Amino acid sequence: MQLNNVTLGIAEWRDLIRRVEIGEVREPLVNIDDSDAAPWDAIFVGGGAAGRFGAAYLKAMGGRPLVVDRWPFLGGSCPHQACVPHHLFSEAARELDYMRWNSGTLWFPKFDDSTASILDLISLFRSGRAAAHAFMNWQTKEQLGVEYVLNAEATVIDCHTVNVADGSYTARNLVLATGAQTAHPRIPGIRKRGVFDFASLIEDLDYEPTKCVIVGGSKVAMEYGSFFQATGCQTTILSRSPLMRGTSLHHVDEDLRIFVVSGMRARGLTVHEDSATLEILGDEHVEGVRARLADGAEIVLDTDFVLLATGELPATAELVRTLGIELDEHGFVEVDTQMRTSVAGVYAVGDLIGSPLEMFKARKCGMTAARNIMGEPYTLDLSQYPDFLHTTYEVTWVGLTEQEAREKYGEIIVIQMPPNGLDQPIPLPLAEGSMLYAFTRPEITGYQKAVFDARSRRLVGAHHVGFGAKDAFQYLDHLIKRGITIDELGEMNELFLNPEHFIQLSRLRAGQHALHDL
Amino acid sequence: MQLNNVTLGIAEWRDLIRRVEIGEVREPLVNIDDSDAAPWDAIFVGGGAAGRFGAAYLKAMGGRPLVVDRWPFLGGSCPHQACVPHHLFSEAARELDYMRWNSGTLWFPKFDDSTASILDLISLFRSGRAAAHAFMNWQTKEQLGVEYVLNAEATVIDCHTVNVADGSYTARNLVLATGAQTAHPRIPGIRKRGVFDFASLIEDLDYEPTKCVIVGGSKVAMEYGSFFQATGCQTTILSRSPLMRGTSLHHVDEDLRIFVVSGMRARGLTVHEDSATLEILGDEHVEGVRARLADGAEIVLDTDFVLLATGELPATAELVRTLGIELDEHGFVEVDTQMRTSVAGVYAVGDLIGSPLEMFKARKCGMTAARNIMGEPYTLDLSQYPDFLHTTYEVTWVGLTEQEAREKYGEIIVIQMPPNGLDQPIPLPLAEGSMLYAFTRPEITGYQKAVFDARSRRLVGAHHVGFGAKDAFQYLDHLIKRGITIDELGEMNELFLNPEHFIQLSRLRAGQHALHDL
């Protein structure tokens, strides 16, 4: 189906995607300008965040990219199975939590968790996600001018050639952007019905879980587990290591970690850290999970619902076979800081190259490949970045932890809320949307900490639990890298009541020649 | 009551403040170190945001400040009657709005606005606010080391001397920080019962309003009006000028304004712009308001509740009489950029010096006075700052509007969400906590716009409706002043789904040599 000469609106794209999904349309969706004789500068194999942003950047620079994807939409797993449903679940978790704590007070009715359904929310997402898909297709074509072939499996033939449907396309460069999927650990019984990963959860769940066991301690474990628990589905996390202390998260401050994990437990989640999942029990459908706890005891957890949250792996076998690209020790594609693989002219981006499996990384390595392909040498530094996850809170952090800063700089100061040494929780909200808590349960409004190198007076780390600070941490990351000091922070214009109070707390100390904790 | 040698915790401070409020304690609360023979560098008359931060800064620099306040707590009107209840109301407005739109879906019960009470929320605030007061007293004494005398009226004797209770204190400088109160316009009937301003609303409301008329179009009008309406109290705003276009708000983008005001109307608020309030009707208690609308027609609005939101004025008569300080044309104290009044050695800070009546301004002019008093020449630039207000949304803006930027730079580009030219609302949440809306009513998730000078590629304005961006706008203000470009924004690390999408939208355009709108 050639679409290059027509302009489809959101409603039309949505209808077309739906027709693909129900099998009414099987042919590729082709948005290629046949009248353009220019050669392809790059073919992006995979149109998720990395491929789509890379192609858009290359096009903006004056190049000609082609994006191919097996799905009938661009944007990849994010709007289809990953970040978007995760945020929908996390918003629900926060709201359910709010309605529980306030149950029976003010205008809040008695909270009845029998009305909170995991299946309902997944159904809502499933029925609505095509609108986001439609937007991606529309924006990429109409606003970004990027050509693409969708709903067609691509076969990489060599380092310049990709076959898609009936066509064969040749480009100066290939950019591999085929993503990753949940790694399925070798646990007996893992193929039983009722065992899901984040993708199959969206596609296949067709009953309301009553109890949940999560295998793994990743962000997905914490995020989805907090949602399940908030709906009233009793949830247990089986994690091999302490939550937030695994290798995939860097710079997690211990005070922040304690606030977050104890908050999960206070909301009824069972967290077994340092545990091993031994077996998924049941006939066809999961009925229980056998596990060994940190103290060596074996337990059996009754459950009708298991979520695997054990991290992700890329599907690279085909690429290794065809192109001979090298992988790292974890199976991800090895790239340099310009996103070049071991094969000349072939780049790899996104989840295919490993952690962090985050949106900014995907998009920025797409951009990095594009710039290098277009002759502008550009390297991507992934050594420092802000990070976040959700429980019933939004948790954000950037820079160094207090302990890391102390080890690196020796003399540091910490400003935090609540401060140390108080006899009771302070009634100031430490995050957005926690003002009611401030008057009823001040101990749960949030937590925040900023760490400064006492000598240079530079901000070196910031940590926040609660809502409303995530957006700011993007800019704090930039400012930390540029060496922002407590003095400069103290001269900024805060918007009170700000979710984090770093500016005004800095101002309370900035007058000091020798800085002190606050 | 001398408190300097004891350490009171939050609970003890709270109890002491309560005993003052019920008249059990009438004496001044004195936190002065009598063993310290150092002279006072400054007396801060008024311990609100401006006075308290000024004193803290001066102390941090090694000086000796004294703060005096007639209330038994520091922090001023913010935690007592102003910003804190405003944020409590705005959180309630957002939450009530959310529960209305989602009424009867998912886990949300049928929304019953008979359970939403203005009086209940005010009572909750009133009974809890002393904890915030207690924290201010504790922090100022124990963490900041600032001396003070509370619960005592201060009388300014001359430019070095203040009498407080039985004592007379002399200092090198005076810093006047006595704040402002709602300006009461000359409208017949304005003294009737049932007519409130933001302060008396907190202190005196003792019935549940059924209908509300707000006189004035200030931030307070929009913020409190949106809350009243959200509780089910039918609210009408009578504003002399279009909302958000008054002289007290700068740089309000017209698209943002339209989204905000039409959103208020969509939620049932009646807004009469360009109207005049003629008379408050009723016997002892207000029963109605007579007004003239923009078209000249006179109407009478039935109501049992009127809120005055006509801006603020300082109480300066005493200061003029005693010190002879000069006022500006609006009655605010005239100061230079160092916060010096017309009288040598006398500074003025906070709401006393006029708009913006915002927290950052109060605190920063306190700091400015402190630095100059301590011999460090320092000027405060209030020409550009970020701003915000609440409806059922949080609305934030910084820098120039699209139109201002066009007039100043000629060639500009705009990136915005939703984009122009779409046939239907996009299902991407444009603010925090709006993911459910994205799947049910995408037209109300939010609005965002960033404006760039096309030639220099610099960000010159940013505008957002929705929640979650306020914290970030503090740092965007700083970055705009430092000349951040679309290229630098595009290289930052976004935390997706970010409430505003400026980083990733910048990246979609930054590759272009000649920039285009998005």
TrEMBL record, chains A, B:
Supply the Gene3D superfamilies for this chain.
Answer: 3.30.390.30, FAD/NAD(P)-binding domain
Cofactor section: FAD
InterPro entries, per the entry: FAD/NAD-bd_sf, FAD/NAD-binding_dom, FAD/NAD-linked_Rdtase_dimer_sf, Pyr_nucl-diS_OxRdtase_dimer
Q: Which residues form the FAD/NAD(P)-binding domain?
A: 41-359
Which molecular-function annotations from GO does this UniProt entry contain?
Answer: oxidoreductase activity
Domain Pyridine nucleotide-disulphide oxidoreductase dimerisation spans what residues? 386-490
SUPFAM superfamilies for this protein: FAD/NAD(P)-binding domain, FAD/NAD-linked reductases, dimerisation (C-terminal) domain
Q: Which Pfam families match?
A: Pyr_redox_2, Pyr_redox_dim
Q: Which UniProt keywords apply?
A: FAD, Flavoprotein
This protein's record includes keyword Chloroplast = no
Instruction: Kindly provide the name given to this protein in its UniProt entry.
Output: NAD(P)/FAD-dependent oxidoreductase
